[in-house]
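One chain shown below:
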Amino acid sequence: MDSCVIPLRHGGLSLVQTTDFFYPLVEDPYMMGRIACANVLSDLYAMGITECDNMLMLLSVSQSMTEEEREKITPLMIKGFRDAAEEGGTAVTGGQTVVNPWIIVGGVATVVCQPNEFIMPDSAVVGDVLVLTKPLGTQVAVNAHQWLDNPERWNKINMVVSREEVELAYQEAMFNMATLNRTAAGLMHTFNAHAATDITGFGILGHSQNLAKQQRNEVSFVIHNLPIIAKMAAISKASGRFGLLQGTSAETSGGLLICLPREQAARFCSEIKSSKYGEGHQAWIVGIVEKGNRTARIIDKPRVIEVLPRGATATALVPDNSNAASEPSS
């Protein structure tokens, strides 16, 4: 599961805890801190938990950084992490910092819960609908952005994407990765979610397969739609890397994949976009739960939903004709 759930000796309470860390993938140290914190908290949110009692921060500073770089970059990463924790209604009370060949950033999130505060990810039923709350393509976007300065790599993809489109996709990916899944976690209770996971390093297919294996009922997940940051599917194809359309491309701090009753899914997608939750929340119906042997698959030709970056105008990013949808619809 995304988090461990440990029954406590005291009156029906459970300790829910998770840890996560990774290497930098964006250039802005402040945003990197925010993304790292969002990524840690996401494992709690995947269980429908909206509160966190305590966070620790894990930080490794690279020994190849100069003293000046350390003094400028480290406080920014810590501030980003702390600010995201504060947005999640929690606080960082400690942690561990080491010197290492690589920069590493992550943390631990801990909460003590009553049984009604979390949703065990094991109750999907035939007829449920799968909803995804962030677009795919973060790894493709951050890699393509790095390739802007690598002529050999850039020449493989510059026939399908412009520099401006890569910049916009990178900004969109960074914004999405830094967005907390807390709103989606709260709405899981409102709309009677049966199970959920967050989409991270194993891609949407890997995490769907893992979630399917946890189910008590004999069900399987079938994914028909892939909401992807605009142009990232084309880059994935042209580069021959990532496996974005196959569902194996890694994501960082991705959205929640939630099993919802069929009659609730459209309302969930509509509600999460409401302005009362702030800007930037999205959701798409991406698949169904059918009778099966606890597996997950993506259909042969999934519908790609090209999700326009917020900084883009519709004319600046016109999807090619191979895509069935050009707007981020549910």
User: Anything to note?
Assistant: The radius of gyration is 20 Å. The chain has a mean pLDDT of 93. The longest strand covers residues 296-307.
